[in-house]
Amino acid sequence: MSAIAFGVAAVATTVIAPAAAADRPAVAAAAITPPAATAGQPTVQACCSYIANQSSLPVAVYKHWTCDHGTTGTAATGCANPAGTSRWLSEGSNTPVYEDWDVLRIDAGWCYRVRLTVPFNTWTVTYNRIGLGHTYVKVEDWGTATVLAQATGGCP
């Protein structure tokens, strides 16, 4: 049996509250190269959940899913700690490789199109929160959530 060591870098995080469109940052942390996909297999990490932003606007992510239920793609309004570790992902950026980021926030009044990937399965979900409060989407270990698009006037 061989062992693999992974380097861990300290990353500054800030606590973020639910944001109105005007409060969303224009840019966030620099992009980090995601892990490479293997032949015939969507990109997943062996240890951790992973969130990427391919939309043109920033998205909020959190480290910990606080409910004891749900799988990748489950949406719930009370399953993340808004005061917990969080960060903004700017356009084209992602959570750090080999760090576990379990939650994507869908902002109140917004509609997001998200591609979800777990080993041997990929699907796309539209989370419509137009006229509603924010919700949180779970990304379990081995799972990837990629925000493809987001809008306020209708679903992308």
What do these coordinates show?
- The structure is a single chain.
- This protein is mainly beta and 156 residues long.
- 0% of the residues lie in helices and 29% in strands.
- It is built from no helices and nine strands.
- The chain has a five-stranded antiparallel beta sheet, with no helix packed on it. A four-stranded mixed beta sheet has the order 1-9-6-7, with no helix packed on it.
- The protein is globular, with a radius of gyration of 15 Å.
- The N terminus is likely disordered.
Mean pLDDT: 80
Shape: globular
As a percent range, the share of strand residues is 25-35%
Helix content: under 10%
Please describe the structure with a list of short key phrases separated by commas or semicolons.
globular, four-stranded mixed beta sheet, 156 residues, single chain, mainly beta, 0% helix
List the topology elements.
Elements: E1 50-53, E2 59-62, E3 75-76, E4 86-89, E5 103-106, E6 111-118, E7 121-128, E8 135-138, E9 144-151
Parallel strand pairs: 1-9
Antiparallel strand pairs: 2-4, 2-5, 3-8, 5-8, 6-7, 6-9
